[in-house]
Amino acid sequence: MKKEKKIKEFIINNKKIIYSSIIGIGVGTLVTLSFFPERIAKLQNGEEVVVTTDSFTITANNLYEDMKQEYAISALLNTIDSKILTERYTINEEMNTEIEETLEYYLNLYNSNYGYTEEEFLSANGFESKEEFKSYLTIDYLRNLYYEEYAKEQITDKEVTNYYKKSVFGAINTKYIAVDSDEENAEELINEIIEKLNSGKSYDEIIDKYKDKITYQDLSYQGWNSTLDNEYMSNLKNLKGNTYSKEYVTTNYGYTIIFRLDQKEKDDLNDIKDDIRGQLASELMLEDENLYYQSLIKLRKDNNIDFKDTILKKKYKAYCEQFK
Q1: Which CATH code is given to the segment(s) 170-263?
Q2: What 3-state class would DSSP assign to 298?
Q3: How far apart are CA 275 and CA 142, in angstroms?
Q4: Can you tell me the distance from the alpha carbon of 25 to that of 146, in angstroms, rounded to the nearest whole number?
Q5: Residues near 196 by Cβ (< 8 Å), separated by ≥ 6?
Q6: Coil, strand or helix: which one is 215?
Q7: CB 101 within 8 A of CB 134
Q8: Quick one: how many helices (H) and strands (E) in the chain?
Q9: Which 3 state secondary structure label does DSSP give 252?
Q10: Buried (b) or exposed (e) across 288-319, using 16+ Cβ within 10 A?
Q11: Domains of the chain: which residue ranges?
């Protein structure tokens, strides 16, 4: 009993050192376990020694029992999801490029913001190598790929049709003139430009006269799925054809004069049904913060995940409950 207490105290007091050295192999080791009833788990390599001192020895089983309390679920789910998702999806060249770009983004971000070298970044985040970090990003990429599919499956045909009727419109040809709202006398300048337009000056004439003081752009046709900010689009839709806003609108561009030109016919529902479903799925993903976890829980359920270790089973059940 005294020996067991010493082992427990040693692990608690030194767990950062022990875990940091074995967590990498721990993830792989945990998924090669053979589980038995009454939560008695044996590693395939038996009573492998992990740490020794003058007074006692810590075996892999000792460490496994303690790791199970803090790391097991996260480690197992990473490995389980990786196996399921790599069977479901084939990583093509385009996917691999996206993952590589994400990897380089993080390395460059930490280098520019914190001065971390590649080795320092990997070490600080618990990765033994660049390849291990890429594996982590690959799991994350595939999880999100499945998550997007799952979200689209939650959208009904009725919801798509209703959205089409209420929110879809023919793309509108538009351009703008804007003044940076942070500039001195910005409001005075934009109102002066509106007065010039009201007096008959054209878009091009305004640009020629004020080009050093304004921003302007022909945005071409903008439709129901435009990425322009809501303030711009709502005002654009309310304008009549071949007119401009008689009062400036505050948008991402600053104090803005919006020009509405011609408009295309509304697309047929069948031609944009998938786009609408994707749009509604994106909105759903933003609204429901639990949806991501619910999608992965379903993924595992569909693949008949079954924890034989009763403690891990209870932990996973509790994990699932928090996302209902």
Answers
A1: 3.10.50.40
A2: helix
A3: 21
A4: 27
A5: 205, 206, 209
A6: strand
A7: no
A8: 13, 7
A9: coil
A10: eeebbebbbbebbeeeeeebebeebeebbeee
A11: 2-70, 76-153+288-321, 170-263
**Cβ–Cβ < 8 Å for 172, 223:** yes
Pair of tokens at residue 219: 């945005």
Write out the chain's pLDDT in tens, 324 residues: 443 444 334 434 443 333 333 333 343 334 333 333 343 334 445 566 556 667 666 666 665 666 666 567 888 899 899 999 999 999 999 999 999 999 999 999 999 999 999 999 999 999 999 999 999 999 999 999 999 999 999 999 999 999 999 999 999 999 999 999 999 999 999 999 999 999 999 999 999 999 999 999 999 999 999 999 999 999 999 999 999 999 999 999 999 999 999 999 999 999 999 999 999 999 999 999 999 999 999 999 999 999 888 888 998 999 999 998
Are the C-beta atoms of residues 150 and 295 closer than 8 Å to each other? Answer: yes
- Read off the tokens for 107: 């390395």
